[in-house]
Amino acid sequence: MGLFDFVADAGEKLTEKVLGSTANEEATRTVEVSPQRVNELRQQNIAHMVAQLDVEGEKVAVKVDGDTAVLTGTAPSQEALEKIVLCAGNQHGIAKVDCQLQVSAPAAAASAAPAAESTFYTVKAGDTLGKIAQQHYGSAAKYTVIFEANKPMLKDPDKIYPGQSLRIPAL
Q1: 1-25+32-108 belongs to CATH 3.30.1340.30
Q2: 81-94 pLDDT, tens per residue?
Q3: In the chain, what are the domain boundaries?
Q4: What backbone torsions phi and psi does residue 162 show, to the nearest 5 degrees?
Q5: How far is CA 96 from CA 29, 74, 115, in A?
Q6: Less packed terminus of the chain by CB within 10 Å, N or C?
Q7: pTM score of the predicted model
């Protein structure tokens, strides 16, 4: 599918996994972690987040090298593929996602028209799902379309943050 750019400083942080403390606690001690270990932790976290999507039939391998995540394998639909890319890209420290996933279309769906690709939107300071929906759909009331398209990564429509990438599905 291609290479996607993300904001590396946005996204879920690995503080708890690396330091053994929660992200809300202030880390007061210096801990050295090798780049290989950071890559491994990011890789594990992305794989865990993809598993939480509970997408039936996905077979995704994740490889992290510095600020780039490489996704290989198959996704059962275009929507699932896009959500998997967002799981990787919304990881703190990931600036690029090299998506080499293929969509495995079931035989019955092969004759149907392919699903339209969504666009990705990077949240800016002051954005709300309503403002984003107004910009993309012409109606703030359609914020629920964006919210539903980004579940389970979004758990609350009022909790988005600058730098976060969201799927904006075609209507």
Answers
A1: yes
A2: 999 999 999 998 99
A3: 1-25+32-108, 116-171
A4: -55, 135
A5: 30, 19, 24
A6: C
A7: 0.78
